Amino acid sequence: MLKNQAFHKNHNVTQENFKLIMEINAKRRRGGLQQRLDEEQRQHTRSSKLANHLLTQYAWGLMSVQEVQAFAALGLQDLTEGNCTVIFPDLVQLSKLGSSGTNKQNMSRDIEKYIESINYLPKPTMVDLPTKKQNELTGVMLPHQIFSFLYEKYPTVFKKLFMPGGTQQIRDFWKQCSGAACLQGQPCLRSLNRAKAIPIGVHGDEVPIAGRGKCWVKMAIMISWFSLLSLQISAREGLLWIWAANPAQFKEGVEGTVHCFMEVLQWSIDVLFSGIWPSKDYRGIPYHPDSPEAKKSGSFLAGGHYCVLISLIGDLDYCNKFLGLPHWASASQPCSRCRCKKQGPYTWKDSRLEAPWRETIYKTADWLASEDRSRNPIFNAMNVTGLSAQPDLMHVKYLGYQQFWLGSVLWMLVHELLPASPLANLRGIGLYVLRWQRRHNVSARFPLGSFQKLSIFQRKKGYPKIRGKGAHVRHLGGALAALWNKKMSPTNPNHVRVKLIFKLDLEIESILNSYSPDSGCYALPEPQALEVRAKQSQKAQLHQMLEEEYSTADVPLFNVTSKLHYSHHIMDDSRHLHPHLSWCWRGEDFMNVSSTLLSSCLRGRSDRQASIKALQKYSLGMQLAWEKVQ
Any idea what DSSP says for residue 341? Predict the structure, then answer.
């Protein structure tokens, strides 16, 4: 006190001024030297958009780790030369990979460590699966873990991926689709919460990851899942990775690779349906009392939301090979949804609305009681039977019987109706198709280059069959119908039948597009459903009449396969489940994404290691995408 009074007297400072000076000095001295330096650094630190882009490209297999390091180093060099005072620690970290590019062999190790430090997604569950040589640990991204994680950490992303229209969208879906054949007699309908039950699908398919188009091509089976309410979202964001593996290494049988994996998936699907964290793992072993899983046991996964598996989606070969359902080309049992045969009174070739095979269509109880039903563990999941394996309109039609149909039409135009040489006629058709599709603003135009060789539809033997992607085949019908109407002979009954088939097909497509899930129609209204059912029956009968007419010709035309029969089931079910809900367009897009990603992980790794590495990169890519949305 005496010292303060002496200070005031000697320096002529009043008491009030002294207090003010002390407060100012205290503010200036707040924190120590290191703290003040850290605060100054924080004010000059930013996240780098370039680093985010480089990591995204790397995560999706579009850029190697060496390229990531090189671009990051060049970016920092430009910043340094420009006297930039802002620090980008993530860009600095990427530039230091492999001792700043000196040891390239260490870059993969370094970036894996960096990804591990910034990736907060749930770790894949390591499952011991049998293979031909030995059991191997492989990573599985369990659906119920991702479902809960997104609800807790990324609520905006959760809504976008699972219920973009909110609870009203869920109610609208169940109001329209609760009559679907796959749901009848199932427990989900008895206790259905129409505001919380999110309908989902599981997609599976094989995809080439090395040697595409070669005899030694290496394939991978890719399993993913998605919400049926978010079809407008891109495949890369909307489909969620579950598992990928090389089927060439699979062990067959009840104790085989697919069987054991499906047991794990079945357990996770059941947990999703319950909406509650389990007390036991997929092997039935209780979690340790002190484990995080045990502490969450009995609590909601996602605030009361749960999932109902509606559709198992894939092409017919996938359904046979990996789900154990009948093969579509079988003579004795070609269909998974009825007891039709190739020949006899229950032949699938009878396309009438009153055909006898329609009396043999499975109901849930019939399928469960069938002795020859698939024993795949996925069908032990709640609410899941063989009826959940929805026929896919894309593979059944556009990459199925439509290819034979359009190939035969092209053959008739090229060899019979147009005057020039076959190749000149084909090139003229290509120009006509291009102009017509431009005029009508067709998005997926058939490539003009495909019309430069007759092999686009002619084969060395067998029926003509057009080659092309599903989207191109789907949008080709309108142009060829217009050309056919100009060149056909109105007195030729077969030409008239072709015209009628085009007309019926375009009318069916128009109805499906006008009442699509994008506009809130998850099932066709009853009048439209009955209309497409009748038109599909008429179209199929005309197709079969044409096959019979040309069966004895030098070149047989208009081949009919059992895939045409599957189209009847699709249209029959359209009253309760729109065909666009269960087709594979997004699944095929995701196959392209996963093919690129898996291919980028193969070099220097075994198939199992490549799968685990791909899953790590996928987790990083999804987290970066979700951070932008959130």
Answer: B
Q: What is the pLDDT at residue 133?
A: 87
DSSP letters for 418-456 = SSS-HHHHHHHHHHHHHHHHHHTT-SSPPPGGGGGSGGG
Give the position of tokens 């102009």: 435
Check if the beta carbon of residue 292 is closer than 8 Å to that of residue 299: no
In sequence order, which residues have a C-beta less than 8 Å from that of residue 181 and are 6 or more positions away? 361, 363, 364, 387, 573, 576
Pairwise CA distance, residues 36 & 418, whole Å: 84
Q: What is the pLDDT of residues 582-624, one digit of tens each?
A: 888 888 889 999 999 999 999 888 888 999 999 999 999 999 9
Structure confidence at residue 43 as a pLDDT band (50, 70, 90):
low
pLDDT tens column, 241-268: 999 999 999 999 888 999 999 999 999 9
Q: Which residues of 164-173 are buried (b: 16+ CB within 10 A; e: fewer)?
A: eeeeebbebb
Q: Look up residue 118 and give its two tokens.
A: 């910034």
Angstrom distance (rounded) from CA 131 to CA 314: 23
395 is written with which tokens?
A: 């593979």
CA dihedral (373, 375, 378, 379) positive or negative: positive
Contact yes or no for 564/543 (Cβ under 8 A)? yes
Predicted local confidence at residue 3, as pLDDT: 46
- The per-residue DSSP string of 14-25 comes to -HHHHHHHHHHH
